[in-house]
What does this fold into?
Amino acid sequence: MVNAKAPKGSEGHLKSDIRHLTSKRLVIATHNSGKLAEMRELLAPHGIAATSAGELALAEPSENGMTFSENARIKATAAAAAAQLPALADDSGLVVEALDGAPGIQSARWAGPDRDFYRAMETIEQQLRLRGATTPERRRAHFVSALCLAWPDGHTEDFEARVGGTLVWPPRGDRGFGYDPMFLPDGQQRTFGEMSSAEKHGLPPRGKGLSHRARAFLKLAEACLERR
It folds into this structure.
């Protein structure tokens, strides 16, 4: 198995053996409809037809990794092996400085089995208030997105990015998904929950990548994909 970082903007050394994706069919290793929609939008300019692990009724593997990258790799390799197609997985989450990095890789679990992210946001807000984190400088956070592109033979390519911001309360906006309504990215006046998908992603040529997922995807695309 070969794991590689993107050639620009990622941590680690530059690798010359990055594998290029030649297939126009891809499995997105998710059962999350919001994440699926975003990933399809990101892939659309590359002419790749994507189905999801949920649509294929693939089992969800146990995400027992210790990092976002490890969990993304678990999901991608499981989907690629089961579908016998290249698979793309994202593992992402919210890291809150005042909460010692929580919820972090547990971000989805904080929403419970019914994926109630408003309840999860309330929990974060309660924890912040218990710690006296009421001013913007005490409410710093960042989103992390780790992407893994895996092939059925076990080869993987890994990319990671983040975006910093401040947590607001009450949540603002009903767009996006997850913790988007309480996350105000640096340099912006609106939360991710108030932005359209085009604004949130900020993809070229109109932008340079705003969201954590868009930034990680730009690294992946530069290394492994061709524009249509």
About this structure: The beta strands are 25-28, 49-52, 87-96, 140-150, 156-167, 183-185. The two ends are 28 Å apart (CA to CA). Residues 65 and 71 are 5 Å apart (CA to CA).
